[in-house]
Structures are given as structure tokens and as C-alpha cells.
């Protein structure tokens, strides 16, 4: 990993990256361009620098700002939410009743604005999500820098001092006493030299990528009638096949036989085994389709990302044609829009001071250094619906065709946010230190939010105390989390597998 050593030159006055400098570089004999050393203006110098404005980064910045740290959030896209908005998702996979602190507050603000529906998970409107998170950050005094790609790290003596970013203003150094890497892919930690695992430990295979798109003009009542009349052709899991039109909760996973018919006529690609829709707007005839799949691609490789974008766009056309031709209610439907980015489920997980496993989750393991608690429904020892080997939803896929998930509550220790071998850095969100099977649970937005809040409070307190994150007072972090309203005792009160979601008591009723 290349780390920039001492290349910072603060320009106190004058052109802060306004001029575009040409690079005086040469191409050496091995076909590589040799970049000369150059001066990079310091555009910001803060207490806590948060890289990545997905939901983990939003929560980290919010918690850091509320804990009193001067906080900067850096995001490469023009809006916040990451996979949760740009990849066109529409639900937080965590029961409303299990959320607390800033997470519950986000849910409540969205609900009050007509942008979310609470339940066994929380369905939301991505556009209100983008605006509400910006508002919450502004109120917490967090500075947000959009359209800024982090491209390098600044490391002194195994401690991260900041990052180098590229944007329309040029190349900039952004300094922070503590940095939270919430880039999803662990870009900062990997560049800084932290060890990581990509994909499944045995063979490095990662879960498939998906381009989500929306279809309009669907006659939902006719669709629902059809699904009710053919229960054998759909997942038996009530959370996967959910037909609650009154509450705008529609999720349908299956159409297994119809897909086989279309494949026999060459109308769908051979690795397609199902069609899947979900929605917050069924009354307006709009459904989200989550059924494109590309396997064997790596979200940290630009060629693979390009291939996935191209392949899934062609799959989208096939799926829309299939729906119009085979599924009652879709006859007059059309593609309304597609996500602005391919959805990446799995890439790097940074190796931290603790590696959390699925066994920890199933055993309901509790930690002295707990900083996050999350809950979601899974099938134990499965792949969370997305096996890296392909054939998802195929006849052999018991998880899709037979199993019914149940709720798991689990704690996440601070050590899983602490990368090995590098100081000044925490990770939050999808890239925390868990194994491939624990990632089935923790890759969801609930854990991304909870670890974001945990990392944000810890980063702010470490910056204030002037100590590296690994030496922060963990009791002070836990007390800081509680003062933000975070319920760290959910697992202790309810155990790892409560019967039903409604039995998850509200954090307002907590006894601590
Ligand atoms: C198709 C699909 C469906 C899913 N469905 C659900 C679901 O229904 N419910 C659920 O809860 N979860 C779902 N998930 C999982 C979940 O959405 C993500 O794992 C979660 O949102 C990750 O949050 P994060 O903040 O860790 O990362 P991300 O959301 O990936 O955020 C990372 C952010 O960092 C930015 N970034 C990355 N690199 C850089 C860089 N170098 N410089 C600057 N910025 C950078 C990105 O633009 C992004 O905004 C789904 C995922 C996919 C792909």
C-alpha cells in the first residue's frame, strides 16, 4: 500500500486548489507513469474526518458532531445514503422497535414527513432519506463535502493523519485527528495498510451485484390476486412474500415456474431463477425490481464494476419484458428508472482487533466493549439470500424455496471497528471486522447505522482526549452512546432469538 509521507503543504492564503496543475510525469520502461512529488493544499483540518456518506458515515458524522467534535463528512456522490439511496433500496432491514438513539430519530423524522412506514422493517422513500440526513447533519454542525473522491491516505508512523481527495477543485489534503472509514469497501483502511479479507474466506468469492430498477404502471391488485392464487410459486417466508396492500407493504419473491417458462423460450438469461419486487408505492402502481444478478465480480475493481453495470442493464430489459408478458398486472407496465449505481453487496472486510463470526451471533455473545446492537431476520447458516456461487432461487436453493427466517439480536464489539496495525482510524458499516457468514447479518443498514453511531462517538472522544482510538476509554464511549439515547442492552433484555418482532420492546421501555 502506498501511503503519502509528509507531503502536506498547507496553503494558508491564495488559491486553495483553484488552479488546475498539469502533472509533469514520465512513463518509465515498465509502462508505469511515475508521479512526481507535489504540494497538495490542506482544504480542511478537523477533529473527526468521516469518509463515505452512506448510512454508516451519516450516523458516524452525526454522532461525532453531537458529541462535540468538529466533523467533516466526505462523499464521492452528490447525495447521501450510499447503497441505501443511490442503489435504489427502499427498506432498512431492522425492526422499527429495535432501533434507538439517532437511528430511531431518523426513522421518526422520516415517518413524520410521510417518508417511512415502521414495522418488522422500516420501508422508506429514498428522496426524503437524502434530504432528512442532510438536515440532521447540518443541525449537528457537521460539514459535508460532496463530489469528492478519496484517492490516497496520509500516514505518519503507522498513524493515519488524513486523506488525499480529488474533486472539481483539484487535489486536496483533508486532515483529521481520527478518521472513520465508512466507504463500504474499506478504501481508506486498505490504502493505509490495514489487513482485510475480500469475500468468502475459503475462495474469495463475493455475493452478486444487482442493479435495482423501478417499474410503473403496474396494476397491483391484479398482481396480488395472482400471487394469492399461486402460493406454491413463491417464497413461503412472510417477509419475502408480503401482500399487505393496506400498509403499502408489498414484497414478492418467486414466480419460479413463470421464469422457467420464459427461460425455455430463451427470453431470460440462463442463471435467472426468479423475479422479485418490493415497493412503498403500490397504490401508485410503482414497484421496485430487485432481480438482476452478476456473479464473479469485485466491487473494488473498475473493470468488474463496468461489466456489472453493462450486464445488469441488459438483464433489466429482459426482466421488464418478462413481467409484461407473463405476470398479470404488469401488462401495461414500463421501466420508470434505474439506480444511479450498481448495488455492491460485499467486498473488503477490514481485519480488526476482533473478528466477529456467525457463531457469536447465534450464541448471543455479549461483549464488555459493546458499542452497537442490531436485529434482523435471517436463516441461520445460510447466505442471506445471496449465495456467491450463483443459482440463487434455483430448485436447490432451500433458503429461497422453503425456509422462513427468524429474528436475531446481536451485539458488535468496539474491537471489530478497530483495524489492526494502524492508528487514528476506525471502520464502520459494511467493511467492519466480521467473517463472511456474520456479514450476512451485519451487511444490512441496521448494523451499518449502529456501528456508525458507535464509531462516531468513539472517534469524537478519542480526538478530544488526544489518544488513538484503540486507547479511548470504552466506558466513556458507552456512556456517550447512552446519552445519545442508544440502547446497548437489547440483547441482555430479550436474548438472541425473541419469538416475534412485536415482542421487541421499545427502547423507551428500557430498564437501564
Ligand atoms: C442490491 C442490494 C440490496 C440491498 N437490500 C437491502 C435492504 O433491503 N435492506 C438493508 O438494510 N440493506 C440492504 N442492502 C445492504 C445495505 O444497503 C448496505 O450494505 C449498506 O447500506 C451499507 O452501508 P455503508 O454505509 O456501510 O456503505 P455504503 O452504503 O456503500 O456507503 C459507502 C459510501 O461511501 C462512498 N464512497 C465509497 N468509496 C469512496 C471514496 N473512495 N471516496 C469518497 N466516498 C466514497 C460511497 O459513494 C457511499 O456513499 C442491500 C444491498 C444491495 C447491494
UniProtKB/TrEMBL annotation:
Q: Which UniProt keywords apply?
A: 4Fe-4S, Iron, Iron-sulfur, Metal-binding, Oxidoreductase
- Give the InterPro entries listed for this entry: FAD/NAD-bd_sf (IPR036188), HdrA-like (IPR039650)
Molecular function terms, GO-annotated: 4 iron, 4 sulfur cluster binding; metal ion binding; oxidoreductase activity
| Pfam families with a match to the protein in the record | FAD_oxidored (PF12831)
- Basic and acidic residues composition bias: residue spans: 388-397
Q: Which domain of life is it from?
A: Bacteria
Q: Which residues lie within the region annotated Disordered?
A: 378-397
What protein am I looking at? FAD-dependent oxidoreductase
Amino acid at each position: 500500500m502506498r501511503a503519502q509521507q509528509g507531503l502536506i503543504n498547507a496553503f494558508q492564503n491564495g488559491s486553495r486548489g483553484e488552479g488546475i496543475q498539469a502533472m509533469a510525469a514520465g512513463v518509465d520502461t515498465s509502462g508505469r507513469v511515475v508521479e512526481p512529488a507535489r504540494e497538495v493544499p490542506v482544504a480542511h483540518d478537523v477533529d473527526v474526518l468521516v469518509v463515505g456518506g452512506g448510512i454508516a458515515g451519516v450516523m458516524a458524522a452525526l454522532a461525532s458532531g453531537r458529541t462535540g467534535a468538529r466533523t467533516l463528512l466526505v462523499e464521492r456522490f452528490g447525495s447521501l445514503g450510499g447503497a441505501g439511496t443511490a442503489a435504489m433500496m427502499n427498506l432498512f432491514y431492522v425492526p422499527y422497535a429495535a432501533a434507538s438513539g439517532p437511528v430511531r430519530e431518523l426513522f421518526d423524522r422520516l415517518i413524520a414527513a410521510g417518508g417511512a412506514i415502521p414495522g418488522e422493517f422500516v420501508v422508506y422513500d429514498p428522496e426524503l432519506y437524502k434530504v432528512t440526513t442532510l438536515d440532521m447533519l447540518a443541525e449537528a454542525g457537521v460539514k459535508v463535502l460532496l463530489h469528492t473522491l478519496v484517492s490516497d491516505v496520509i500516514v505518519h508512523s503507522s498513524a493515519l493523519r488524513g486523506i488525499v481527495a480529488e474533486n472539481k477543485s483539484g487535489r486536496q489534503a483533508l486532515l483529521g485527528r481520527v478518521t472513520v472509514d465508512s466507504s463500504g469497501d474499506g478504501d481508506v483502511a486498505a490504502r493505509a495498510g490495514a489487513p482485510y479479507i475480500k469475500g468468502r474466506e475459503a475462495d474469495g468469492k463475493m455475493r452478486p451485484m444487482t442493479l435495482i430498477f423501478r417499474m410503473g404502471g403496474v396494476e397491483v391488485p391484479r398482481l396480488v390476486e395472482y400471487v394469492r392464487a399461486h402460493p406454491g410459486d413463491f417464497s413461503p417466508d412472510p417477509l419475502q412474500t408480503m401482500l399487505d396492500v393496506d400498509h403499502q407493504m408489498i414484497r414478492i419473491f418467486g414466480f419460479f415456474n413463470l421464469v422457467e417458462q420464459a427461460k425455455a423460450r430463451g427470453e431470460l438469461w440462463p442463471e435467472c431463477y426468479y423475479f422479485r419486487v418490493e415497493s412503498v408505492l403500490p397504490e401508485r402502481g410503482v414497484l421496485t425490481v430487485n432481480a438482476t444478478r452478476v456473479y464473479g465480480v469485485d466491487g473494488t475493481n473498475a473493470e468488474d464494476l463496468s461489466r456489472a453495470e453493462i450486464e445488469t442493464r441488459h438483464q433489466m430489459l429482459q426482466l421488464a419484458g418478462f413481467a409484461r408478458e407473463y405476470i398479470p398486472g404488469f401488462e401495461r407496465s414500463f421501466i420508470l428508472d434505474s439506480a444511479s449505481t450498481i448495488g455492491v453487496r460485499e467486498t473488503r472486510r477490514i481485519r480488526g482487533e476482533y473478528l466477529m463470526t456467525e457463531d457469536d451471533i447465534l450464541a448471543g455473545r455479549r461483549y464488555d466493549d459493546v458499542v452497537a446492537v442490531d436485529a434482523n431476520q435471517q436463516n441461520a447458516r445460510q447466505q442471506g439470500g445471496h449465495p456467491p456461487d450463483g443459482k440463487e432461487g434455483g430448485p436447490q436453493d432451500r433458503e429461497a424455496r422453503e425456509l422462513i427466517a427468524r429474528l436475531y439480536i446481536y451485539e458488535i464489539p468496539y474491537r471489530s471497528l478497530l483495524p489492526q496495525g494502524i492508528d487514528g482510524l476506525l471502520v464502520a458499516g459494511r467493511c467492519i471486522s466480521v467473517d463472511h457468514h456474520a456479514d450476512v447479518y451485519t451487511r444490512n443498514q441496521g448494523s451499518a447505522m449502529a456501528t456508525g453511531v458507535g464509531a462516531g462517538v468513539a472517534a469524537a472522544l478519542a480526538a478530544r482526549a488526544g489518544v488513538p482510538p484503540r486507547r479511548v476509554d470504552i466506558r466513556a464511549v458507552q456512556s456517550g452512546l447512552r446519552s445519545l439515547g442508544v440502547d446497548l442492552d437489547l440483547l441482555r433484555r430479550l436474548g438472541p432469538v425473541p419469538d416475534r418482532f412485536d415482542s421487541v420492546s421499545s427502547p423507551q421501555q428500557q430498564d437501564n
